């Protein structure tokens, strides 16, 4: 008998018929003797609809009231699911976040969970009930309803699993797991049976949008075993099969994790590049360029600068795509003359492609395999950055898909898991 938290996304909760299927799936786990807490999202499209209503009245509504409105989507879901479970003879009870309570800070529309009181939930589980708790919402220390940011139900579920010390958190969604890359770009992409949370964090932050990134951070911090799996399989799929399906986000860099040197190829087009030319090469320059960018609250991701030969050098960095104009304004108004630079050039047509894998810690030659592969495709690398488990490059965005396909093949990810080692021998 295990304690399991199950999260169902908006698509899974998308109609009363689908909610009926969720109820059958939950009932199956309950009948197998497990203690089950369910954290559902709002029905698909509902959160957008609710936020849209508020913005019809005022394009910039008060965030507190926005949360009051947005949180109702999840409240409808938990009530409907409780009714569906009771209808098929399973004792169930639903709670809103403030009833549990799921305590958050006061940052409306992007609140963070501070603590969860698990006493009510435990009492209901002890009484044999399925407990259904709203995703996405909580309550601050004034008693105001808060929400956790879009996609926040993932975080609610992982946090609930952490608070309860659950054996596993199952994230049921409309994909059947985490893939080596986006199957729409590389049809040969494979589902990973396991991925470490660190790799998942890199992949989530690099644009693979299976799980809200804060949920992954939470899973890492509190060591919550989290599994991403399909809610589109038959609801009566045997529990033993379902329990081993999908992708497990794990911690142990154990024997069977070792073979996968590279777990995936991530990519995104969410960044733009700014280059400052003829920057004087002297102490304080990086601060003088990036200080005003930080003051304007613009995130900087990659940065490159070289030493100068003749006293000046180019300085490039990337910012979120939607912040490009803002950042260019800051550079032109506050930086260019102050440091006596040449030109400020903005380039929105870039993409970032990354190779991710914990095996990088113990294998050499991976960067050279990556660069050789891109060279063989005639793709120019504009920027490079690395971490312990990732190598990222910036390239022209029109080559992004070509790069992802070539790298997926070169790193042996087109083949089943055993092939990975063989593929890497080439570069190693
Ligand atoms: N319903 C919220 C949203 O659409 C939270 C979630 O689904 O995770 O963002
Ligand atoms: Mg989601």
Give an overview in words.
With 428 residues, this protein is α/β, with parallel strands linked by helices. It has a domain at 3-255: Carbamate kinase, CATH 3.40.1160.10. The chain has helices at residues 16-31, 46-57, 63-70, 72-87, 97-100, 119-126, 153-164, 197-205, 213-222, 239-242, 255-258, 285-295, 324-339, 366-376, 400-410, 419-425; strands at 3-8, 35-40, 92-95, 102-104, 113-116, 130-133, 137-139, 145-147, 168-173, 194-196, 226-230, 247-250, 264-268, 271-280, 303-305, 312-320, 344-347, 350-356, 383-387, 390-396. The strands form 5 sheets. The chain has an 8-stranded mixed beta sheet, sandwiched between helices. The protein has a 4-stranded antiparallel beta sheet with strand order 13-18-20-19, sandwiched between helices. Strand 7 (137-139) and strand 8 (145-147) form a beta hairpin. The longest helix is centred in the first third of the chain and has 16 residues, at 16-31. The radius of gyration is 24 Å and the shape is globular. Residues 418-428 have low confidence and may be disordered. The structure holds aspartic acid and magnesium ion.
The class by helix and strand makeup works out as alpha/beta
CATH class of the domain at 3-255: Alpha Beta
Give the C-alpha Rg.
24 Å
Largest sheet data:
8 strands, mixed
Chain oligomer state: single chain
Q: What is the strand content?
A: 15-25%
If classified by CATH, what would the architecture of the domain at 3-255 be? 3-Layer(aba) Sandwich
Distance between the termini: 45 Å
Q: Provide the list of bound ligands, each named once.
A: aspartic acid, magnesium ion
Fraction in helix: 25-40%
